[in-house]
Amino acid sequence: MSSITEMPELVMEKIIEFSDFKAVLTLRQVCRDFRNFIDDLNDSKLPDSKFTKIQILSEKKDNKIILDFMNSDDSSHRLEYSEIGNSRSFNRKTTLLGNADIVDVAIPDLELILKFQKSTLEFLYFTFDDFQLQNDSSLHVLPIKLSNMLNVSGRKIKTRYFNIKTSDNSQIMSVLPIAEPETLQVLNLLSIDDDEQRSNLHSSYDDGVREIELDEIVKTEQWKNAERMNCYLRVLNLKVEYVSHFPRLFMKIPSITARDLDFLKTTYISSPQFKYAFFELIDFNEHDDISNLWGPAFDSGYSKHFWYFRRKNAEEKILRVEFSLYYRTFSYRTSELEDVLPGAVVQDYNEG
After folding, report:
1. How far, in Å, CA of 235 to CA of 252, rounded?
2. Is 153 in a helix, a strand, or coil?
3. Sign of the dihedral defined by the CA atoms of residues 144, 159, 229, 194, in that order
4. 231-235: long-range contacts (C-beta < 8 A, 24 or more apart)?
5. Are 171 and 109 spatial neighbours (Cβ–Cβ below 8 Å)?
6. How many other CB atoms sit within 10 Å of the CB of residue 281?
7. Statement: residue 121 has pLDDT above 60
């Protein structure tokens, strides 16, 4: 009797093509011939795993790498790689890795699974813990090796939301180019200790928020193509020209000048796509300058000051600018004319 592995390649390819993702992974474990045949197949001949979320993270507490793959029904598959005991766990089965480095084991596993992901992800998460001071751990090289693997394969990951939580700015540039620019809609840059910061939002403006410079990031196609940007790292030396194209924006910055505020106002009143922009500051010292540019603000009596501007070619839409003295925030928002506070003045549209 002939072995199934002796079937014509075309027949084998059809079997793979009409099998689901789990079945192909199971078939790959049957024998070396199946594994080699599947690994050598063109990605287009493999079934779609149809994941909606992928999370890649390193944990300093337990010296682990975790790969999570989630489906639309919220079912998930998790691979854990632990430096403690040097092991890999999947479906409650643990395999000892001997002398192998867990990073060097996790990267090929991820590369294999990504071969099956054809549809666009809703969310792609990266969390890279701070391993810089741990000389006995190799996990700090995970972003670099991940980037190298995808660069060699030429693979881009199609995702709508791209999220990275890190303590090291350089790690952002390691993985941001992984996202396919054409499908990317939302870019979230988070601090590794951001959960604690957001739970105490506005409680302190000297809260040790991690800092970032955007000089390299703004050159990427991912930055240029995203429709929404949320940055919970504090941006240093911000050039507002880098962020004025985002229809939706949240950003932490040390301060902002009246000139930059006016540039953003002029840009937003002319942009039909603009929805909102929110800037959280440490301080703002140009009250007189912005009043000279825009005129006196409308004081709501709650430490909030408002300006209203008509937008280009929009009779019922206005731009509302709000400065909160208490929270030290400037926000811009497209609003309805009917939402203007009683007694406030709406300034006519002026391109200059």
Report:
1. 6
2. helix
3. negative
4. 231/188, 231/189, 232/188, 232/189, 232/190, 232/191, 232/194, 232/197, 232/198, 233/169, 233/189, 233/190, 233/191, 233/209, 234/209, 234/210, 235/211
5. no
6. 20
7. yes
CA distance 48 to 46: 7
Confidence of residue 352 (pLDDT cuts 50, 70, 90): low
Domain boundaries in the chain?
1-47, 48-237, 239-246+253-352
**Domain 1-47, CATH class in plain words:** mainly alpha
Burial 202-240 (b: 16+ CB within 10 A, else e): eeeeeeebbebebeebeebebbebbebbbbbbbbeebeb
Q: If you ran DSSP here, which 8-state letter would residue 179 be given?
A: B
Rounded distance between C-alpha atoms, residue 28 and residue 24, angstroms:
6
- How does residue 3 score in pLDDT terms, banded at 50, 70 and 90? low
For residues 58 and 231, give the distance between their C-alpha atoms in angstroms, rounded to a whole number: 21
Rounded-to-integer distance, Cα 203 and Cα 197, Å: 9
Type of residue at 291: S
Residue 116 · residue 46 · CB < 8 Å? yes
User: 54 forms bridges with which residues in the sheet?
Assistant: 69, 124
151 burial level (CB within 10 Å; 0-12, 13-18, 19+):
exposed
